[in-house]
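G.,

No rush on this.
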Amino acid sequence: MEDREPEISGRIEIHGKGYLDFYGDADQVINSILRFLSEIYPAYKVVSDLTINPDLEELARSLKGLVGISDEGLVILNTDLPADTSIMLCLIGAYVSSRMGKLDKETLATEDITRLVGKASKTIRNEIPGLIKKGWVDRVGRGEYRVTTAGIVQFQDQILTGL
């Protein structure tokens, strides 16, 4: 495991328009800066509205009771869910955990997913191609996968709201 992401602090000042003091990890700082710029420059707001950037805090809240993050790593709290849902929970959990500095990478190997969800390895291997076809998961290496931004957004909208 890597140490926590370094904290960033500073100030952005746009003369005659305002300033922003910021402090936090990279994701928090970037979100603050983007919000600040969209308030100062409305044209930027139009472009930023088209940008998909999962809200880490909201995503973590939506995983409550389904995924746990401990010093030992990721834990799936409900293993009675369908295999595709369980795989997505693993990969989204890895994404959130890596952004929080609890895991050193946001990818998981098939064996890790199998262990976390408690389902047969063949079941996991059979489900992943469907998730890739939907655009929810990317294969990043032999037997190594990560969730896509589209996968996070669509899973959150379509599945997490019903769990």
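When you get to it, here's the other one too:
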Amino acid sequence: MKKAPGNKTDPDMLKEYDFSNGIRGKYAARYAAGSNVVVLPPDLAQAFPTPEAVHNALHGLVSLAQETTAKKS
């Protein structure tokens, strides 16, 4: 594994940390496939303070949109 350029004096990296056998990007594809990060503006973050609140609101919106579409057909 090639060493990434970095700050050799990073105070958060202790001498005890050993990444010599690490594999860069081992889980990157799995992480990218299973996540979708959306950053909310502060006003929306106040209205939807938890992931569950966002989830419920979006599901409600989808249900409403489907009902509206079905009534028009």
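The mean pLDDT is 86. Residues 51-72 form the longest helix (22 residues).

Enjoy the weekend,
O.
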